[in-house]
Amino acid sequence: MQNPSPTLQATYFDGKSAQAHGVALCMDQGVLHIVNANLQLAVPVNQVEWPERTRHGKRMALLAGGGSLQCADGVAWDAWCKASGLRESGVVVVQQSWRWVAAALFSLVLVLGALYQWGLPMLAQAVVAFTPQTVDAKIGQSTLAALDEALMAPSGLELPQQEAIRTAFVHVLQTQAPDDMPQWNLAFRKSKIGPNALALPGGTLLMTDDMVALVGGDTQVLMAVLAHELGHAKYRHGLRMLVQVSVLGAITSLVLGDFSTALAAVPALLGQAHYSREAEREADAYARQILVSARISPRVMVTLLDRLRAQRERDAKNTAREREGDKPSGSSEQIAAPALAWLGLAFASHPADAERIAFFQGDAR
Ligand SMILES: [Zn+2]
């Protein structure tokens, strides 16, 4: 049994007239007593409505039949409620505490983050698994056509040199289990994108003349590039990325309501930056396995990454010099946005971080 609560001075309105009555409130065994010299009311507590309150508002309780109680001294009211064993509703407590608000926001971010991190890739993987390979091939064809229009020109490499690289790769792949092998074909292009390579959906491995030039035609290094790109083809990263970026785009447009072109680029960029890292790891692992079984040291990849970095630094210097040289601004290359999206998967888009270098630096086992 609970002892009677302390009393609290409050104001009572009967709900019929505007007259305020000074009263004392006291709670006893589930009954609220409202008392003054002329008044003696006993109301079961469960028939009293305790509206949600804000931290600074005046306190109030509503009685059945239209009466109400008010108290300007919020601190005294709260202390009395507590001493009377009145529980506040969870919502009030939560609303009043910034810690709870912060915690709620934090959990929301966690949930969204988990969806972004794991939910979307899982969804994309499922979609890709149910998509026939012919779809990859179709997308690959139209991507190649778009790239050719925007960024590529026919290769300047002699056909025998192209054929030699192709044949070397066929030999490398003969050391692999045949059932493990995705469909592939190799195409060379002269391009504005510098030394680079990419795997289009459907298995077209695209290599730029500049890439061959960068490594001085070193076939072993080129095998490493092609093995990495074949990894992208094997795991169908192109299609996976496309699904993920499309879903992110759809969600963004749902949330933001408006699909302005500036915002449209955001999910694509987000998707690329995050998901491509995982895809690169998979492709690197596949490349390393191919190199090892073809008895090529995986360290050739480190050589390549070093050369690409040196090339990037040269490019950056040249760009800076061009800016100083007061060139007209129209001289910079405008790259078509859809073509650019695919470059997120291109070889040179992934600088050599320490993890990648360490991965290829280990001895061939
Ligand atoms: Zn890659």
Detailed description of the structure:
This protein folds into two domains: 8-96, PH-domain like (Roll); 131-324 and 333-361, no CATH class. It contains twelve helices and ten strands. It has helices spanning 74-83, 90-96, 98-129, 133-150, 159-173, 209-214, 219-234, 237-256, 261-293, 300-324, 337-343, 354-361; strands at 8-13, 21-28, 31-36, 39-44, 59-62, 68-71, 152-154, 185-191, 197-200, 204-208. Strands 4-3-2-1-6-5 form a six-stranded antiparallel sheet, with helices on one face. A four-stranded mixed sheet has the order 7-8-10-9, with helices on both faces. A hairpin with a 3-residue loop joins β9 and β10 (204-208). α7 crosses α9 (261-293), α7 packs across α10 and α8 packs antiparallel against α9 (261-293). 28% of the residues are buried. Bound molecules: zinc ion (ZN). Zinc ion (ZN) binds next to α7 and α9.
Identify the notable features of this structure and list them briefly:
365 residues; alpha+beta; 2 domains; six-stranded antiparallel β-sheet; four-stranded mixed β-sheet; rod-shaped; binds zinc ion
